[in-house]
Amino acid sequence: MGKPLKQIHLAAHFPGVNNTTVWSHPEAGSHIDFDSFVHFAQTAERARFDFLFLAEGLRLREQGGRIHDLDVVGRPDTFTVLSALAAVTEHLGLTGTINSTFNEPYEVARQFATLDHLSGGRAAWNVVTSWDAFTGENFRRGGFLPREERYGRAREFLATANELFDSWDGGEVLADPASGVFLRDAGAGAFVHRGEQFDISGRFNVPRSPQGRPVVFQAGDSDEGREFAAADADAIFGRYATLEEGRAFYADVKGRLARYGRTPDQLKILPAATFVLGDTDAEARELAREVRLAQVSGATAISYLEHVWNRDLSAYDPDGPLPEVDPVPGENTVARGRASVRMFRDPLATAREWRELAAARKLSIRELVIETTGRQTFIGSPATVAAAIDDLVQQDAADGFILVPHLTPGGLDGFADTVVPLLQERGVFRREYSGPTLRDHLGLAAPRIPAPTGP
């Protein structure tokens, strides 16, 4: 008897400000109007997706000292948007990225416990760390933690938040008819935490929520990030969507679970993935080429190259060759607040690799940026895309995918209407939700309620 088919997990990323969206497309809509969020979320729920994911932007990015042109629409607050979406959806999980460097455990735990109550058990927290002093200037810290300290703070932050979630042990809550005040035993909500990062005590004022704790996600490809996910997360966002790279990442992260007393099914691996659909594979390939050209204009290509070169390249022709001058090493002063900057820790080595690629393929600056930046993960007819997704999941390159469409808010519609039914026919994706909570959607057990602690 063969190995049973794995069930695929699908989620949708509302992309926010970025260079993924094709802004010039006539169907491109607002990234801040609530109607856009509603359309996107309700499409994902209609397709029986596990959850919607919102990224976080704590400061507008800058290029050459000016606000980057892709950031002019702003960054709505994550909790406000997710709380509003809880009222217009019934089953869809609501995942938000919240930073552990600049926030406090009590505040974040209270917000997530509230969201879990408001949504009936659909909240999830993507725990991230900050990486630049530029963002830190907006906060009390006035800077940022060194790399070696960031994950230490994140681990203690999450542990402290869990202590707050668990301070209500799940017992009965009674209401006093005379006063309308909830009555509990004297230990309800009481907590004490003494640690290197946090020294707090008091009483958590939100009763235990439907999931007990929100589902915890982690995004990070470093060794520290993988270890953090293996120890504490319920799911990790992966960067790899090819079979070979995906299987290597999958095996590495899942292989770390045993040392924390966990089994492989207790952590889901969900890479981000883009897609382009067409009636035929050939049509989809042509459309994908047009999408990439729209995503990477000449100005965008020069801007992206400046992330690596750390110098003003505005005089260069995007349809010409790469600069002969080398990148300026050290702190990046041209592009600030850009996640891509930290990806190039050795810009001189990156420049050498890109020059070799450009020479071998006869690529211009723009063509090189299109070649080396994110490309569509799945391209083809609905049948081709459904087969590709299923194959990667069944071969343990992923447990599912977080889809990032190039149009907002309607970019998910075609996938929901054409690819999802084919996955359902294959018997690898749900036709109906099996339970009310996000833990139900992901097949995760409820967190164990520890023995009550307190002062």
How would you describe the oligomerization state of the chains in this entry? Answer: single chain
Strand content bin: 5-15%
CATH superfamily of the largest domain: Luciferase-like domain
**Helix count from the secondary structure assignment:** 14
- Largest sheet, described in full? 8 strands, parallel, barrel
Remind me, CATH topology of the largest domain? TIM Barrel
The CATH class of the largest domain turns out to be Alpha Beta
The total domain count is: 2
Overall helicity: 25-40%
Low-confidence stretches: none
Average pLDDT taken over every residue: 87
CATH architecture annotation of the largest domain = Alpha-Beta Barrel
Q: What is the CA-based Rg, rounded?
A: 23 Å
Give a description of the structure.
The chain is α/β, with parallel strands linked by helices. The protein has 2 domains: 338 residues, Luciferase-like domain (TIM Barrel), CATH 3.20.20.30; 76 residues, no CATH class. The protein has 14 helices and 17 strands. The strands form 5 sheets. The chain has an 8-stranded parallel barrel with strand order 1-2-5-6-11-12-13-17, surrounded by 6 helices. A 3-stranded antiparallel beta sheet has the order 4-3-15. A hairpin with a 4-residue loop joins strand 9 and strand 10. The longest helix is centred in the middle third of the chain and has 19 residues. InterPro entries: Diverse_substr_monoxygenases, Luciferase-like_dom, Luciferase-like_sf, NTA_MOA.
